[in-house]
């Protein structure tokens, strides 16, 4: 998914009324929704469309389960984020769905705003991961000047707007909070890495990476991912520190 294109969602729900509600709510993001009533139809739509940016599967379907459908589609599309939805509140039903590979399980009934908020967040995280992967590919061939002339911009406004429902005021407010917290997070990461505390650095980087996705901090997100992959690397720490410093530098 590119920041300038609408995301495409594969929705699978056998109940007609629920399918219509979920489709309308997802389309209002906005997004393109391919809606299926069972596993067979979902597989057909997945093969026909070529690519989806997110899967939203009912846990129980007339010809199988959401977990079975997820497993069957994973071979061709291993990185599409997947959400499950179910009417069950029981941990015995919810935990196996998470174990099967669904990022989250939405418990019905769910409101349109709650569904849309979850979809926006997951789509934004997927977009950020795609951007980070592209940055890592660039970094493989980049020279030692990466910290001061990275190819990614400091801010990806389109990604931030997509994550926050197109509300520029929300983007501005969240970025102010993000920048307020960044100095402390920057120090915590550096201290952990220098001390060899891989677990502690990982916790800080995980939190920071998620925040980067919401506010569209493209270059810092790439540096976070790089340092997560090489938590003992002085070069990766330098890249991270430079990217954070650029965001915090006076305009």
Automatic annotation (TrEMBL):
The modification Phosphohistidine is found at residue 206. It comes from the Bacteria. PROSITE patterns: HPT (PS50894), RESPONSE_REGULATORY (PS50110). Keywords: Phosphoprotein, Two-component regulatory system. CDD domains: REC. Gene3D superfamilies: 3.40.50.2300, HPT domain. Residues 167-251 form the HPt domain. The modification 4-aspartylphosphate is found at residue 58. The keyword DNA-binding does not apply. Residues 8-123 form the Response regulatory domain. This is Response regulator. It comes from Cognatiluteimonas sedimenti. The lineage of its organism: Bacteria, Pseudomonadati, Pseudomonadota, Gammaproteobacteria, Lysobacterales.
